[in-house]
Amino acid sequence: MRFPRIPALLVGLLTVLMVAGCSTNGIQSIPLPGGVDVGDNPRTYRIQFANILDLVPQSAVKQNGIAIGRVTKVEVPDNEWYALVTVKVKNEVNLSDEARASIQQTSLLGEKFVSLDEPKDTEGAPRQNPDQAIPLDRTRTATDIEQVLGALAMLLNGGGINQLQPIVSELNKAFEGRTNEFRGLIENADSLIASLNRQRDDLISAIDGLAKLSTRANNQTEQIERILQQMPAGVAVLEEQRPQFVDLLTKLDKLGEVGTDVLGRAHEEIVTDLKALRPVLTELAKAAPDLITAAPLMLTHPFPDWLLPGVQGDSTNLFMTLDLRTLNQLEALGVGQGNPVYSPPKRHNVPVNPKNPYYNGNGPRYGWPTITLVPPGPDSRPGPNTPPSGGTYPASFAPTPKQGQGILDGTLATIGVPA
User: Fold this and answer.
1) Is the pTM of this model over 0.85?
2) Which of 404, 223, 398 lies closest to 323 in space, CA to CA?
């Protein structure tokens, strides 16, 4: 019979299996059927995890939901409190030094796998060194359904869920009959939060400003302490002068009453004066270009600023004739002379500068100075109204006093003031 040969075959088969098992690293070293093919030259990365749940070797490694490798080893380094997971991925997967790793699961109760993610704009970032593990600050573990159920059980059994009943009852009592008011309160709160959100940049700037102020105050601690130490002495001085301050405030109050009374009585006059100033200010605004033109001469009188480029050296000569007689000065200002009359030039084809304020109906009269407010032309010369060197104005401008009348009476009569 051949039946005794069966136990011998079984023993031989078991022996072969035992030898095969001893020659490998266990069943976990055998790739799963249908797993991803990483090729002949895969990349190896090591990842640190604070918690790997029930992740085991030969688990999948995915990127953007596509399998790119598998877990080859799970270990805990000596004297460490984290798990070190070794993975192999396809050679074309080249992680940057900003890559993130996480433990995910395929479904609610599915198997765990390692997910590798790249942040945005990491194309030009340095690559991850395979000799250095991805640190804990770049890894995380997704919440497991077991943890959720455990927390829910703790809340329902030993938590404060039973204390919600009186809270809900009190809220119902508070809201009863006040639904519209609470709705308005919620809408106002929503508007407030939206306004704060729109002003978020301003709030951040204000907080940054407070931070800078705090830093500056912290750097000036000694000065602040010295001021605080000297403040009691200053407060004591103010305390001694309190009667004077009280008297000052009392007088200020009286001054305010008097000022209010004066302003009340002179209200119409003040309004009238302000209205009267309107045409003056309007004309000044119209004369703004002329004022700008005359400003250089006003600041450098009697030398116009255009004279400076022609000065050789550090000095220049000035020839000036001053007539300090009162009557002539009054006439030079136009007192008693009527409106200015334009005096045409005695010779023809004289170049005329329209920017000259003496031009076109406002020309100089006999006896007026002829200093122009704009730079003269290259061929210009003093006008005929300027008295020659050593000369005087005609005597007709100086009226002869009548018999029994002083020089002042004649001057007053000239300007229209009766004696």
Assistant:
1) no
2) 398
